[in-house]
């Protein structure tokens, strides 16, 4: 067993304690006062040099023994989701309507575990530990890059994400595009409205919504022949009674794509679909795209060195993903500034069949050791 794995394993119980505290007390969004204070206090107690910012979370620095000018940035996210927990765990959320359903409590505990090891056994490289809020939809990574002292010319950035349905201990890697571009859309439909007895006289936004939804499925299937794209309608608000054809309606949803080219082809086709369907029904249709997160693009050389190291370790199974994940992550912004990588760490809890974000998802805490060890290996330099 690698020394770093042994050192991480020695912190397993300590990490479980912190993970369960965080799991019981989740906070959602970008300002996470209790979580920030808890993490900052834990790091300060370890004797580390800590910086906090209300919108940028907590960062800590560790001086390396053999710094070569390249700094290792290790990032964990801190935020929970607005989900009511249904796991029945004895350390389930005590905050109504909030749950660590994406596993960010595990990420935080892993990086705290790595910090504890590094406080006693410094890394080779200078290392910055980043505990970031607001990953889920607040672009917390941008706040970190703006407000934390990260003026680092030569650095690598690394993060991992637990995967609720992959075998515990499996590391899923991919060079280049690892996760998708993600955007949101709104479609507004408007018409004259009318009496329910005269559907032949006025266009019905409900008919338009049905046709648009069906066309989006057809077109995304067609475009996905060359490169996977997704356009999913997730919300429809049209009509409010039984005998009136509504005069307006709104659809909202998500799009995902794997390259700027396929993203723009998809958006072009969506504009066309909305215009064609609206015109045929003599309605007005407007599509608005709300820019989301860029794709997570791993540095191929960094990922290659990481995989090479991981494959030499016993008890770890490294799998290369054939397709990128259609999930999105704001760690993308770190990887736009520095080379590095994100990997998935399989963390399926016993009997769990739910994916990240489900209200009954259960993760395997034994992966805390592996997660901390991966962070330590990167801190020593790849
Ligand atoms: Zn998530
Ligand atoms: Zn997440």
TrEMBL record:
InterPro entries: Amidohydrolase, Bact_exopeptidase_dim_dom, Peptidase_M20, Peptidase_M20_dimer. It holds the Pfam family M20_dimer. CDD domains: M20_Acy1 (cd03886). Residues 184-279 form the Peptidase M20 dimerisation domain. PANTHER family: METALLOPEPTIDASE, PUTATIVE (AFU_ORTHOLOGUE AFUA_6G09600)-RELATED, PEPTIDASE M20 FAMILY MEMBER. NCBIfam families: amidohydrolases. This is M20 family metallopeptidase. It comes from Terrabacter carboxydivorans.
